[in-house]
Write a structure and sequence with these properties.
With about 450 residues, this protein is α+β, with helices and mostly antiparallel strands. It folds into three domains: about 150 residues, Beta-Lactamase (2-Layer Sandwich); about 90 residues, Orthogonal Bundle (Helix Hairpins); about 150 residues, Heat Shock Protein 90 (2-Layer Sandwich). It is built from ten helices and 13 strands. The strands form three sheets. The protein has a six-stranded antiparallel sheet, with helices on one face. The radius of gyration is 56 Å and the shape is rod-shaped.
Length: about 450
């Protein structure tokens, strides 16, 4: 506000000085030029032969109607001194003063000021061919009066404009400061962690609205990032807890079996059983670390995916044949229904995905079937693994791809699961730019599916 008022004040000062000094000087010069011209014209008229009485009557009438002071003197004698139709000191001897001798040559003039500080313009000239001098004086010439009124109007207008500018800048600055304070308070609350309250600025200015929208967007981004970070921290804590539990159990078991094997009272059958138990737990620990390393490699090294064309039917057939003995031990029917499609992907990684899904279906199905279906869908190959197991409750569906997350922890450990299989599936497909999908109904079964790009559109072979 101060800066704006200062700029406007400087402009008002400059224009005011111009109006007072320059316009006044120009008006005075113009008024002097006018009265000089009138004096010359009147002196020319006085050259005509006329009686003193006629000359006095003519000059008296002119002074009355033109609001002039007309002074005429001959040598040192004042002949006429007229003002507004009145005779002043007629016939009096006179000693020429500076005012009376204002001009001895045509075109010169003098400005004086009366007792009330009013301006009086004089112009004098010698009447050609005579010994007479003529002087005309005019109090406050009309052009100067008009100029003075214009100066007052301009100065008043400038002062009024300055007042309005100061008031307007004060109002604007107050409104702007209020909005800025609102935004500053909102930014402070965001900095303090209050991210749920929406910032509302009561202003029609698009700049403030845009800034409020940006702050709301920033707060929303921070809120989402914090929620993601909190979720990651929760997952990390769960991961650390799970991995410590997963590692601790087989280590304790191996330690126990090794201590038992050192006992001299064990029979040969007990030694064999304890040795197998120890080796089994060691294998479990080895698989756990292998899967953790696998996830880390997939997460940070997507270049480990080597894409090449291969036939899905042959791959799926190998996986089903490998898994049939495990399904047979549980009395499950394992089936494959596949079109001869060729896709572009990492064959070994896709084998790992399909194997995990099929074995997961077998592990969590007690009766019924586990089927694998491969078909063309919207220009891609769609791979489905469907089981008739116990199903997954809706509250667990969003988390089943997290590391170490188990819907039924006791059942998973019973079957030797580490809780990393579906997480590996998710990482492999994500590295391929694909998504693993799941739908399930408790007591009915579960369906996993994903898509892969075809090697050649409409070309089907195994």
């Amino acid at each position: 506000m101060t800066t704006f008022a200062a700029f406007v004040g400087i402009a008002v000062f400059v224009v005011g000085v111009y109006a007072v000094v320059v316009l006044e000087n120009r008006a005075e010069a113009q008024a002097g030029s006018i009265i000089v011209g009138e004096t010359i014209r009147l002196s020319t008229a006085l050259q005509r032969p006329m009686t003193p009485a006629d000359r006095a009557a003519s000059l008296l009438q002119l002074s009355r109607f033109a609001d002039l002071r007309i002074t005429l003197w001959n040598a040192d004698t004042l002949e006429l001194d007229l003002y507004r139709g009145h005779v002043i000191q007629p016939g009096t001897p006179i000693v020429p003063t500076r005012a009376l001798l204002a001009a001895t040559e045509a075109g010169t003039g003098l400005t004086t000021y009366g007792p009330s500080n009013e301006m009086i313009l004089y112009a004098g000239v010698r009447v050609p061919g005579t010994r007479m001098f003529l002087r005309i004086g005019q109090r406050d010439p009309p052009i100067r009066v008009v100029s003075s009124q214009m100066q007052k109007t301009v100065i008043f207008g400038l002062l009024f404009a300055l007042v309005l500018a100061v008031m307007g800048s004060w109002i604007a600055a107050t409104r702007v400061a209020k909005r800025i304070k609102q935004l500053a308070d909102s930014a402070r609350r965001i900095n303090e962690g209050e991210l749920t309250e929406e910032i509302v600025v009561e202003s029609r200015a698009s700049e403030f609205q845009d800034l409020a929208i940006s702050l709301n967007g920033m707060a929303s981004t921070f809120r989402n990032d914090i929620e993601k970070l909190q979720r990651l921290i929760r997952i990390q804590n769960e991961f650390l807890g799970n991995i410590s539990h997963e590692v601790r159990n087989p280590i304790f078991a191996i330690n126990g079996y090794l201590e038992a094997l050192g006992s001299e009272t064990l029979t040969e059958a007990q030694r064999t059983r304890y040795a197998k138990k120890g080796v089994g737990n060691l294998d479990r620990l080895t698989n756990l670390f292998s899967e953790l390393i696998e996830i880390a490699r997939l997460e940070y090294r997507e270049d480990l995916i080597s894409r090449e064309p291969f036939g899905l039917l042959e791959l799926a057939h190998d996986i089903i044949e490998t898994a049939k003995p495990k399904a047979a031990t549980k009395g499950l029917a394992l089936s494959l229904e596949s079109e001869p499609l060729k896709v572009v992907a990492d064959r070994n990684r896709i084998r790992q995905v399909m194997t995990n899904l099929v074995e997961n279906g077998i592990a969590y199905t007690d009766r019924g079937t586990v089927s694998c279906t491969i078909s063309e869908f919207q220009g891609n190959a769609m791979i489905e693994v469907i089981d008739t197991g116990k199903g997954i409750a809706p509250e667990h569906l969003e988390r089943i791809f997290e590391r170490f997350y188990r819907v039924d922890a006791a059942r998973s450990r019973k079957h030797g699961g580490s809780g990393l299989g579906l997480s590996i599936v998710h990482q492999i497909l994500q590295a391929h730019g694909q998504q693993i999908n799941v739908e399930s109904q408790v007591g009915v079964g579960t369906r996993f599916w994903f898509e892969l790009p075809l090697a050649e559109k409409d070309l089907k072979h195994s």
